[in-house]
C-alpha cells in the first residue's frame, strides 16, 4: 500500500519471514563513531531471547512493524489506475537499511536458523526512501524518543504467559490488605498515593517465595501464596490499620518500612526457609514484635542508610537475615556475614 506521511511517500507491505534475512542489511556499527552511525549497535545478547520468545510462543507471538529505508527507487504498480494498493518492485540486491526493529529482525533470523517453522508467517514492513545518514538518524530518533515503556506492574498485570504473575494476581484477590491497597499500574507509589504496595513489589516477593516451586500449577501456587501472605498480614497490625481506615497510607510509608519492597522481598525469601516446617504459622507470630520504624537504629546499614531505605541485593539479604534472627531462626554463615556487626550482636 502506498501512502504519504508529511512530504514523503512510503509503502506498507507484508514480508514473509523468510525474506527478512534476504532483504535486510545488518551493519556492524562497532568501531564507527556514533555521529556516523545510522543505527545503534546491535545488542547480541537480546537476539537469543527474541528467538526463544518466538519458539516458545509459536502460535501467538507478536511483533510490531519494522521500519526500513530503500536506496534505489522502487517501481510501484497499482492494481488499477489511481489506486494506492498494488505491487512494489525492488531492484535485485537492493538491501533495506533498518531504521527501527533491527533486534526484531535479528531475532527472526535466529529463529529461522534454529529451525522454528515461521518461514510462511509475515511481518509488516514500512518502507521510506533513504535520503542521507542525517535523515536516517532523525528517523531513528523520531521513532524512539517518545516511546514510553510500560511499567513493570502493568507488564505483570497484562502478561498471560507468566504463571507466577497469574498466581500473584490470584493471591492478591485472596488477601484483603493486598486486594484493597495494591497499585497494579505504577512501579512506584506517588507521595500522595492511598496504596501501600505495588504489583511489581508483590510479584518480586512471590518470585522469591516460589523458588523451587515454579513448576507447580497456578492454582496450587496461588493457594500457597495466599496462605503465606494472609499469615504474614495477621502479624502486621500497621497494614490492618491502613486497611481499616485508622491510619493513612502516606503516614505509614513515611514512618515505617513494613510495606517497602525490600521488606516484602525479604519476607518472600523467608517463606522458602519456613514453609516446610510444621509450625511455620506459629513461627511468624514473632513478626509482631519487630520494630519496623525507620527510626529504629537496628535497621541502620541493614536496609536503611542515611535515613533512606535501600533496595539492592545486599540490603535484601541483610533484611531477610535480620528478620530470621528476630523470629528465632538460626542463620547460615552467609546470612551472618550479610548483617552488620551490631545487628548480629543484637
Structure overview:
By secondary structure, the protein is α/β, with parallel strands linked by helices. It has 16 helices and twelve strands. The strands form four sheets. It has a six-stranded mixed β-sheet with strand order 1-2-8-4-7-3. A hairpin with a 2-residue loop joins strand 11 (304-305) and strand 12 (308-309). The mean pLDDT is 88.
Question: How would you summarize this macromolecular structure in one to three sentences?
Answer:
The protein has 346 residues and is α/β, with parallel strands linked by helices. The chain is built from 16 helices and twelve strands.
Defining key terms:
six-stranded mixed beta sheet; alpha/beta; single chain; 346 residues; two-stranded antiparallel sheet; 16 helices
* Largest sheet, strands/sense/barrel: 6 strands, mixed
Q: What's the count of strands?
A: 12
Could you tell me how far the N terminus lies from the C terminus, measured between alpha carbons in angstroms?
73 Å
Instruction: Give the topology string: H per helix, E per strand.
Output: EEHEHEEEEHEHHHHEEHHHHHHEEHHH
Overall outline: elongated
Number of helices: 16
Strand content: 5-15%
Range of helix content: 40-55%
Radius of gyration: 27 Å
Largest sheet, spatial ordering of strands: 1-2-8-4-7-3
Enumerate the spans where pLDDT stays under 50 for 5 or more consecutive residues: none
Mean pLDDT: 88
The structure class reads alpha/beta
Oligomer: single chain
Amino acid at each position: 500500500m502506498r501512502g504519504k506521511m508529511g512530504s514523503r511517500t512510503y509503502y506498507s507491505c507484508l514480508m514473509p519471514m523468510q525474506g527478512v534475512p534476504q532483504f535486510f542489511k545488518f551493519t556492524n556499527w562497532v568501531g564507527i563513531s556514533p555521529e556516523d552511525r545510522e543505527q545503534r549497535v546491535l545488542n547480541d545478547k537480546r537476539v537469543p531471547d527474541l528467538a526463544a520468545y518466538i519458539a516458545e510462543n509459536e502460535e501467538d507471538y507478536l511483533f510490531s512493524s519494522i521500519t526500513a529505508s530503500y536506496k534505489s527507487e522502487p517501481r510501484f504498480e497499482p492494481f488499477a489506475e489511481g489506486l494506492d494498493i498494488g505491487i512494489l518492485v525492488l531492484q535485485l540486491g537492493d538491501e533495506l537499511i533498518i531504521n527501527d526493529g533491527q533486534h526484531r529482525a535479528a531475532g527472526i533470523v535466529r529463529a529461522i536458523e534454529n529451525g522454528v517453522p515461521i518461514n510462511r508467517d509475515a511481518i509488516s514492513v514500512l518502507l521510506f526512501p533513504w535520503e542521507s545518514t542525517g535523515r536516517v538518524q532523525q528517523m531513528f530518533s523520531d521513532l524512539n524518543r517518545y516511546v514510553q515503556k510500560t511499567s513493570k506492574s502493568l507488564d505483570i498485570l497484562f502478561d498471560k504467559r507468566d504463571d507466577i504473575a497469574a498466581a500473584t494476581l490470584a493471591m492478591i484477590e485472596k488477601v484483603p490488605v493486598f486486594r484493597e491497597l495494591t497499585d497494579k499500574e505504577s512501579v512506584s507509589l506517588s507521595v500522595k498515593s492511598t496504596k501501600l504496595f505495588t504489583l511489581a513489589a508483590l510479584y518480586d516477593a512471590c518470585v522469591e517465595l516460589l523458588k523451587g516451586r515454579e513448576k507447580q500449577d497456578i492454582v496450587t501456587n496461588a493457594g500457597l501464596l495466599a496462605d503465606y501472605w494472609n499469615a504474614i498480614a495477621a502479624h502486621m497490625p500497621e497494614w490492618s490499620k491502613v486497611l481499616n481506615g485508622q491510619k493513612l497510607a502516606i503516614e505509614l510509608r513515611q514512618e515505617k518500612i513494613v510495606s517497602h519492597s525490600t521488606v516484602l522481598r525479604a519476607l518472600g525469601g523467608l517463606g522458602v526457609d519456613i514453609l516446610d516446617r510444621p509450625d511455620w504459622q506459629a513461627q511468624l507470630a514473632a513478626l509482631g514484635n519487630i520494630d519496623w520504624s525507620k527510626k529504629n537504629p537496628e535497621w541502620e546499614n541493614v536496609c536503611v542508610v542515611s535515613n533512606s531505605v535501600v533496595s539492592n541485593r545486599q540490603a535484601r539479604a541483610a533484611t531477610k537475615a535480620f528478620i530470621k534472627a528476630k523470629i528465632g531462626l538460626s542463620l547460615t554463615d552467609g546470612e551472618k556475614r550479610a548483617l552488620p556487626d551490631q545487628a548480629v550482636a543484637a
